[in-house]
Task: structure prediction
Amino acid sequence: MTTVVAGDAATGEKERHVAVSGSKEFEIDAAPADVMSALVAVERLPEWSSAHKSVTVESSYDDGRPRLVRMTMSVLGINDVQLVEYSYDGDAVIAWTLIESDQQKAQDGRYQLAPTERGTTSVEFELTVDPKIPLPGFLVKKGQKTALDTASKGLTKFLEQR
Result:
């Protein structure tokens, strides 16, 4: 985690600018290929993630999986337009890195999938967010918690309805 300290010239107080990282592990009652299929369908993100208002695939890899994706987001009342680049490791990992954003300096996310002995999928979701503007740490963490919860509950519900 990176911490940047910025000063307030008027008060002499220091405000901390923090990149926040978090992860969440959960299990989905679906095969890893089905979970990956849902994650690759990025244009359907608004169906299971209330933060995603619109998603447009701007380019794809030769296998058809999304590469560059533009998203309009709203988290905790902060609106953002982001361009992210996706990468994949077979059907086990889908990851993204922020290319451009109105509100963030950096963002890296990753889903790692593994089959379980019960025929379900173990999912590990990791997210690091670094906002451009100084925000209170509790607010950044609340936004991140919302993203982590959406990743588990929203994705699980979406897969159950397919």
